[in-house]
Amino acid sequence: MTPAPRHPALSATDPDLAALVGAEERLQAETLRMIPSENYVSSAVLEASGTVLQNKYSEGYPGRRYYEGQQVIDQVERLAVDRAKALFGVEHANVQPYSGSPANLAVYLAFAEPGDTIMGMALPMGGHLTHGWSVSATGRWFRGVQYGVRQDTGLIDFDAVRELALKERPKLIFCGGTALPRTIDFAAFGEIAQESGALLVADVSHIAGLIAGGAHPSPVPYADVISTTTHKTLRGPRGAMLLSREEHAKALDKAVFPGLQGGPHNQTTAGIAVALHEAARPSFREYAHAVVANARALADELLARGFDLVSGGTDNHLVLIDLTPKEVPGKIAAKALDRAGIVVNYNTVPYDTRKPFDPSGIRVGTPSLTSRGLTTAHMATVADWIDRAVRAAAEGDEPTLTTIRTEVATLMSTYPAPGLPA
């Protein structure tokens, strides 16, 4: 008997799109997903994100809408807000930003004027585009000054950060980024921001789940504003939140709406509410600590196989690998790993001599594989696959990549992914 389609209405209406969704489900099920910014959401988050809340337009905020018929929507958003405030221990939360970059733009709109000096980590050093990098609107509309990491250690030099802040007197200082494998010292950034007269913005998009689970220190005592996506380690839908002290609530809310966007995506708000509910459970705390334990175990195994890791290891969910000693460019290695069923992304490393679209490194992470139940006991196998695949990439050995892909699929079949067909 032919099994019923997983998405019957979609299959009947648009079989082409349904087939693509099915193909993506199989791809996510069969491969080892190691991009640090990706994860698996639960079936509950998926369901909440696909409800009739999609049908509502809700410009404004709970109790202050421009459209009628918001009796239920107001409760949904208040539920998400209350859960965010409780989980992170903040005075104010806005769950309406569409994604991380718009959330950061709202911070600029709330606290800066075009041409103001803002300070953030340079993109090639591990920062984010929206922290004032030149190719971003934030680097064109504002005067961006950047700090980095030491070339000898791969760690932030806080003496240099302080010197730059006191010299430039930025309106905002961003801390956090996309390729930082070490614990962020929010207290040190807070002292520098206070001394230089800047507002401190902690972009914790990558580590929000680790913070919620107690596996990374919280920026709440030190940062004026916290910006985060709701996916990645938090395991929610693709959305964002702005968290802050109450004194900044009005400016941030006004910047999000009507400053940057219209009505919120209510179905996403619902998914965020579910993810925050899940993140408040003891099992999520165990998950967050397991993510870090897996990353550290993986780093140790990679070091044992002769890989050069930026900063020498990791404190969080990601490992940044400089493949220069392996004589394989990051892009070639990433594509070879993809053919081997191991999904990573090529990435610049600090002081990279190669171009951003063809860099020297790859970035790997453990959130997704931890969601599937893999433990530190599996990290030697994962490191061995990466090692064999990188060597195969250097030698043009496609049969080895095919063999690894079969081995990966076999292991993945015994560790079903949350939210995917059994």
UniProtKB/TrEMBL annotation:
Keyword Manganese: no
Source superkingdom: Bacteria
A cellular component annotation (GO) from this entry: cytosol
Gene name tied to this protein: glyA
Biological-process GO terms, alphabetical: glycine biosynthetic process from serine; methylation; tetrahydrofolate interconversion
Record-linked PANTHER family: SERINE HYDROXYMETHYLTRANSFERASE
NCBIfam families per the UniProt record, alphabetical: PRK00011.1 (NF000586)
Family under the similarity heading: Belongs to the SHMT family.
Pfam families in the cross-refs: SHMT
Reactions listed under catalytic activity: (6R)-5,10-methylene-5,6,7,8-tetrahydrofolate + glycine + H2O = (6S)-5,6,7,8-tetrahydrofolate + L-serine
Residues binding (6S)-5,6,7,8-tetrahydrofolate: 123, 127-129, 246
Start and end residues of each Serine hydroxymethyltransferase-like domain: 10-386
Modified residues (N6-(pyridoxal phosphate)lysine): 232
Compartments, record wording: Cytoplasm
Feature type site, description Plays an important role in substrate specificity: 231
Pathway connected to this protein: Amino-acid biosynthesis; glycine biosynthesis; glycine from L-serine: step 1/1; One-carbon metabolism; tetrahydrofolate interconversion
Subunit structure as annotated in this protein's UniProt entry: Homodimer.
Principal location listed in the UniProt entry: cytoplasm
Any GO molecular function: protein homodimerization activity
Record InterPro entries: PyrdxlP-dep_Trfase (IPR015424), PyrdxlP-dep_Trfase_major (IPR015421), PyrdxlP-dep_Trfase_small (IPR015422), Ser_HO-MeTrfase (IPR001085), Ser_HO-MeTrfase-like (IPR049943), Ser_HO-MeTrfase_PLP_BS (IPR019798), SHMT-like_dom (IPR039429)
Statement: the UniProt record of this protein carries the keyword Cytoplasm: yes
Enzyme class: transferase
Name of the protein described by the UniProt record: Serine hydroxymethyltransferase
